[in-house]
């Protein structure tokens, strides 16, 4: 069943609503998928909820439909994962966001570290953030998700470490030789929430790892090989999803 993202929902009664769509989404509904009165589809605000509706009317900026069901999407993982990503060079961040969204992360937080090469002034940071948010939204559409992850403003590594999290904060580090990712994941307790901190090209400075450890983060190894910054996060996220039963 086709799914479309809506900007606003005006419920006229529990069984009927008007769904306002962006021009591009409405174009796809009418002209690409050629949906019409009587057809059914899914609408979502990007908050994790799905509306299954039967189309009654298609207007210039909205679709009126009968609500057949409203429920939490079954495409979103139960576990909450926040990816703190050290800013990489070139366009790698866009690719990282796209793939992290496909895996179902809840938030993506770009961060600066001692070895970060990319320098963003306020204007550049604002433009990048808008671009990143657009990529996140497009990635959700592509993978059939119903929740658009939050891409936050760039913060410093120190502030990222000091942010309070309800679950476990993991920091993959190439010089960690004993603490495995699997054992760290199994310490989750009741909170199905993880924060994963990934360094930029060149990895984390040893002092950064020590600071993170002193403030409750768990340094872990991802194996015998050193992974690229655009690879390490996906390995860690995939391992978490597998260990908590989200991958079968």
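Sequence proposed for the structure above (248 residues):
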């Amino acid at each position: 069943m086709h799914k479309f993202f809506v900007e606003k929902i005006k419920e006229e009664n529990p069984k009927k609503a008007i769904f306002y769509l962006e021009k591009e989404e409405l174009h796809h509904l009418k002209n690409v998928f050629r949906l019409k009165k009587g057809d059914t589809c899914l609408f979502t605000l990007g908050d994790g909820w799905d509306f299954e509706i039967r189309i009654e009317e298609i207007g210039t900026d909205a679709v009126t439909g009968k609500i057949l069901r409203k429920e939490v999407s079954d495409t979103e993982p139960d576990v909450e994962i926040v990816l703190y990503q050290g800013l990489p060079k070139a366009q790698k961040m866009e690719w990282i966001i796209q793939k992290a969204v496909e895996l179902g992360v809840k938030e993506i937080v770009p961060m600066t570290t001692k070895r970060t090469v990319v320098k963003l002034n306020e204007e550049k940071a604002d433009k990048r953030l808008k671009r990143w948010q657009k990529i996140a939204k497009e990635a959700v559409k592509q993978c059939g998700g119903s929740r658009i992850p939050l891409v936050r403003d760039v913060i410093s590594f120190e502030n990222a470490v000091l942010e309070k999290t309800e679950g476990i904060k993991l920091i993959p580090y190439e010089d960690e030789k004993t603490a495995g990712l699997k054992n760290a994941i199994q310490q989750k307790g009741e909170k199905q929430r993880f924060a994963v901190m990934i360094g930029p090209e060149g990895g984390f400075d040893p002092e950064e790892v020590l600071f993170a450890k002193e403030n409750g983060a768990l340094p872990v190894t991802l194996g015998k090989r050193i992974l690229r910054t655009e690879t390490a996060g996906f390995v860690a996220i995939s391992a978490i999803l597998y260990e908590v039963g989200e991958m079968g």
